Predict the structure.
Amino acid sequence: MHGALLLENSKYFDVGRIIVTQKRKLCGFAFEADYEIGVLHQLAELADMYRIRILYIQFSMPKPDDKAAKAITFLDFSDSKLSPQEAEKILEKKKFIRSIELIEPLNNKFVSDTFFFPLVVSGDRALIFRKEIYEEIFRGVRKQFGTAGEAFLYYVGFETGKRAYLNYVQLAGAEELKALITTAKAVNMTLGWSIFKEVKISEKAKTATAILSENFECDLARGYGKPYSQFYRGAIAGIFTQYFKEEMKVEEVKCIAKGDPYCQFEISRA
């Protein structure tokens, strides 16, 4: 139920690269186009001219000196007299299109990106897990191994946090506190982990407070009745251990799993 409410009430962004046909005449195109001003405008003009609806278009993140950009698009030809094959031939003749490949529906049920692989985020290979998958991973570890499983999740989170901190430093370009907090907030939200509402740090006392909403781990256990985070709690401990240059401990004092409006983590010396 909560998942439906989340999609209904938040500014969600679907990155699935899969679209169900729903009795519409859909197809996809994978293409490479010149990275220049006006390309999107020309594509939109062509779609309007032939009464083709652009349902989805996403460009691979280009580097500043790239001359071309890769993209995936899903189109609805239901109201067009043009066939996808004819559209492909028209696009092939456009100077700004370097290469293009038609993606047909699978079993007349859905269209998906079967062309580009692997997925990459900031130069590293990345995976997308839907909630039903990572829910089984996190709950499964707890169910099979009990408190040992929880300790394992914390340890994995701790090491993940230590590595994440180094990534934040690289993205921020320095270990300056304000820049690191801004970077961490942006990365966590962009990757769908959580939304950092507030971070307070006392460098003198080596303590901190972090308030998060929609923590993906605790979202799995709403109604659990007590704090649930192990992996994320460990990740926060790893991040602050790197920052303060000594081992830190983290306590989750508020949690959406026990009915609180957000998760609150208190960080202090171990």
